[in-house]
Specification:
The complex is a heterodimer of chains A (about 550) and B (about 160).
Chain A: H1 6-27, H2 33-41, E1 45-47, E2 52-56, E3 62-64, H3 65-78, E4 82-85, E5 91-93, H4 101-110, E6 127-128, H5 143-153, E7 168-171, E8 186-192, E9 198-204, E10 216-223, H6 227-241, H7 252-259, H8 261-275, H9 284-292, H10 307-315, H11 317-326, E11 327-329, E12 335-340, E13 351-353, H12 354-367, E14 371-374, E15 380-386, H13 390-400, E16 414-415, H14 430-439, H15 443-449, E17 454-457, E18 471-478, E19 481-488, E20 500-501, E21 506-507, H16 511-525, H17 532-539, H18 542-549
Parallel strand pairs in A: 6-7, 7-8, 16-17, 17-18
Antiparallel strand pairs in A: 1-2, 2-5, 3-14, 4-5, 4-13, 8-9, 9-10, 11-12, 12-15, 14-15, 18-19, 19-20, 19-21
Chain B: E1 3-6, E2 9-12, E3 16-17, E4 29-32, H1 33-43, E5 48-51, E6 70-75, H2 82-92, E7 99-104, H3 111-116, E8 121-122, H4 130-135
Parallel strand pairs in B: 3-4, 4-5, 5-6, 6-7, 7-8
Antiparallel strand pairs in B: 1-2, 1-8
The chains are: A alpha+beta (about 550), B alpha/beta (about 160).
The complex binds protoporphyrin IX containing FE (HEM) and iron/sulfur cluster.
Chain lengths: ~550, ~160
């Protein structure tokens, strides 16, 4: 894991001091509301429905057990003993007091954490695959590159006041894109060319929100040394030419769409011509330095499928189910990647109590070299678990409420905080998640349905990524009443697509019935082993639409 | 005489930022760059020109910038970050060595960033306490990226 040196630590400490002073001046009325707004936003502080919301950065989702314990402790002492892990691999606290935020930041700084640029119109926390570094088919570990981007984007003097927020995600596997790179402002796919050199395919202009778009390729292969100069060029063009007259049209996707990718690329290249080869060209020594932080932990030489695992798989259907769903193949024999799900019925997706955070930290110490990751699907991951310890881990995970064996299934939902917390919401989203979890509680049935992404957002800002859910649920407001629009056919992986709206919206109590009907259409139409999304792509929207709106007879 | 912050100190402002195109141009005027460009043959000597957000710097490419004591950059709103690039491009691309002055709506908390992209003078709104602003001059003692005073990113300096 990356470890701060004196420079990193100094910057974070100085940021704490700066924000402490800004908060003091705001409370003293030396800074106006309007002036304080972007300053606090660049430090992750929203003013929300009930209290400020503080978004703490978890760069590319990596956490040490020490850091997670600190988060547990902070959420316990300064908040209501829980936190919300978000799709952008961050942690949100919903109830901190503004006056306390400088102290919270100071405590975070003690464990090499911060809330820098977690919101506001600047370059946000870079995200990546939660399985980075431990999957077999990865081209290289993307985390050193994420760290390079983190440093380049932190307090970038030219790009702190962009037209709109800016999000970058990195992927390094051909077989899956777990970071939804194609719906980011910039998506980076790490590649190796025929000469064995590492570089990036660069995708630009994806994004969700009001005008959802899948990004387009601006560059097929950018050598890694040129990454930062090229990113500077892209963002400089965007900063200059992106729309500032209308915040709904201010994202880079709108600019790319308006110019067309050819013209946008020409402008970026013209800018890049001045930057290419200059000081920001990254030397090999820096890649080596960054890579050294992500070297392999002390793996033992182990065999796959030890006896204790095989016999438990044979004996316990519950364990077998958990193993099948919540664990993933590791690049090293004898190890397994384990997801601790935060999707227990009755708990908002992504929420974890302080106690759970504490327990997850303990589990990571005991089973996974003291490290964890946060996933885009709002779960926690232990990346390096010995297969011989899986049974023990399973028992412990069950106790802590982490073992809901539904990873990737219909009830492993992404869900934004919605109307319960968010002042922008048109409708609640957590009760919808609950309703679906209650309705679809038969594990055999869920298993039979297989992989389905169901994403819920409380308004069209799309924090819950509803557009790219195989099933998307969007809260809408109809004359002051809460309704829900359903879309199907979205996807966020390498086959990214934006879902199509089924038709008129539904009342809250109808949602799980409608989902049930959609599932029936799928089950009737699927060919063997076909995923929901593939059946949809084959048969089209019509049968789903007909079933959803059919009058009961 | 109104004061401003320049090169880390508080000094008297010798120039007049002329926003009204009808106002009479004097040798102390900082006038709109576009106006200067179209009327430069008749307008006479000025202290400098100012850029508006959206102007870019390309149109100054073939202009001899050494004739100006100052180039101003207007921030229509402090959240409009276009001017940050202008200063940087004036320094790095057009090699302008003179004074670059921030004008309009920017706030003391932005001084750290403004300095790093090449601004060296700051004409704040009247209500800003310059002594207090000066204290916010340098929020960070170190930076990851290169900037106009040292173009080397951290990886060349660690
Ligand atoms: C609770 C307070 C929150 C507020 C006020 C808020 C606000 C917003 C707004 C205004 C947008 C639209 C931006 C645009 O279209 O340009 C947005 C998008 C987004 N937010 Fe949030 N959000 C909140 C919570 C969350 C949470 C909990 C998550 C993660 C679970 C999240 C992740 C995202 C993502 C991924 C997007 C879509 C990005 C895109 O357009 O590509 N936000 N949010
Ligand atoms: S999608 Fe809307 S309701 Fe949900 S968190 Fe985002 S802004 Fe709030």
């Amino acid at each position: 894991m990356y470890q701060y040196d004196a420079i990193d630590q100094q910057l974070v400490d100085e940021r704490v001091a700066q924000f402490r002073d800004q908060t003091r001046r705001y409370l003293n009325k030396e800074l106006s509301e309007q002036e304080f707004l972007p300053l606090r936003l660049q430090n992750g502080l929203y003013v929300q429905r009930y209290a400020p919301m503080l978004r703490i950065a978890i760069p590319y989702g990596m956490l040490s057990s020490t850091q997670l314990r600190k988060l547990a402790d902070i959420s316990c002492r300064y908040d209501r003993s829980y936190g919300h892990f978000s799709t952008r691999q961050n942690l949100q606290l919903n109830w901190p007091k503004l006056e306390d935020v400088p102290d919270i930041l100071a405590e975070l700084a003690q464990v090499e954490m911060h809330a820098v640029q977690t919101s506001g119109n600047c370059i946000r926390n870079t995200t990546t695959d939660q399985y980075a570094g431990v999957i077999a088919d990865e081209i290289v570990d993307p985390r050193p590159y994420c760290e390079l981007i983190r440093q380049w984007s932190t307090f970038h003097p030219e790009f702190a006041f962009l037209p709109r927020k800016f999000k970058i995600a990195v992927n390094a596997t051909e077989s899956a894109d777990r970071a939804a790179t194609q719906v980011h402002d910039i998506g980076l796919h790490i590649k190796k060319n025929d000469a064995g050199e590492i570089g990036f395919k660069i995708i630009v202009g994806g994004g969700l929100g009001r005008t959802p778009m899948v990004g387009v390729t601006i560059c097929e292969f950018m050598p890694r040394k040129d990454l930062l100069t090229y990113l500077d060029a892209i963002i400089r063009v965007y900063n200059q030419q992106g729309r500032r007259d209308n915040k709904y049209k201010a994202r880079i996707k709108i600019l790319v769409k308006a110019l067309g990718i050819e013209e946008f690329r020409n402008r970026v290249d013209a800018e890049w011509a001045h930057l290419k080869g200059k000081e920001s060209t990254v030397p090999m020594s820096e890649f080596d330095r960054l890579t050294s932080f992500f070297s392999e932990p002390a793996y033992a030489a182990l065999e796959n499928k030890p006896e204790i695992l095989s016999s438990k798989l044979a004996d316990s259907a519950g364990f077998a189910r958990w193993y099948e769903r919540n664990t993933f193949e590791h690049k090293k024999p004898g190890y397994r990647i384990v997801t601790l799900t935060l999707k227990k019925a009755g708990q908002a997706p992504g929420d974890a109590t302080s106690d759970q955070m504490q327990k997850a930290a303990d589990l990571s110490d005991k089973f996974s070299f003291g490290e964890l990751r946060v996933s885009h699907e709002q779960n926690l991951v232990l990346a390096d678990v010995r297969q011989e310890q899986l049974v023990e881990l399973w028992e412990a995970a069950k106790e802590a409420g982490f073992a809901t064996p539904t990873l990737g299934l219909l009830t492993d939902m992404i869900c934004c905080p919605g109307g319960d917390f968010c002042s922008l919401a048109n409708a609640k989203s957590i009760p919808i998640a609950e309703q679906i979890q209650e309705t679809f509680n038969d594990l055999d049935y869920l298993f039979d349905l297989g992989n389905i992404d169901l994403n819920i957002s409380g308004c069209m800002n799309a924090c819950g990524h509803h557009h790219v859910g195989n099933i998307g649920i969007l809260g809408v407001d109809k004359k002051g009443e809460e309704f829900y629009q359903i879309s199907i056919g979205g996807a966020s992986g390498h086959d990214a697509s934006i879902g199509k709206i089924l038709g008129p919206s539904f009342a809250q109590e109808e949602i799980s019935t409608v989902i049930q009907k959609l599932m029936n259409v799928y089950v009737e139409n699927r060919s063997e082993d076909e995923r929901f999304i593939d059946t949809y792509r084959r048969v089209g929207i019509t049968p789903f639409k007909e079933a959803a709106y059919a009058k009961a007879n | 005489m109104p004061k401003l912050i320049k090169n880390g100190g508080i000094i008297d402002n010798a120039f007049i930022w002329q926003q009204d195109p009808e106002q009479k141009v004097t040798p102390n005027s900082i006038i709109a760059a576009q106006k200067w460009l179209s009327e430069k043959d008749t307008i006479g000597c000025v202290a400098g020109i100012w850029l508006d957000a959206g102007d870019g710097i390309e149109f100054l490419q073939d202009v001899d910038l050494t004739q100006f004591d100052v180039i101003g950059v207007n921030f229509p709103a402090f959240t409009d970050g276009r001017g940050f690039s202008y200063a940087r491009l004036l320094r790095e691309r057009l090699n302008y060595q003179g004074e670059i002055r921030a004008l309009g709506h920017f706030i003391p908390d932005q001084l750290g960033y403004l300095l790093r992209v090449g601004f060296n003078s700051f004409q704040f709104n009247e209500e800003v306490d310059l002594e207090k602003a000066l204290a916010l001059h340098k929020p960070f003692s170190i930076a990851y990226q290169g900037d106009v005073s040292d173009p080397r990113p951290i990886f060349l300096r660690r």
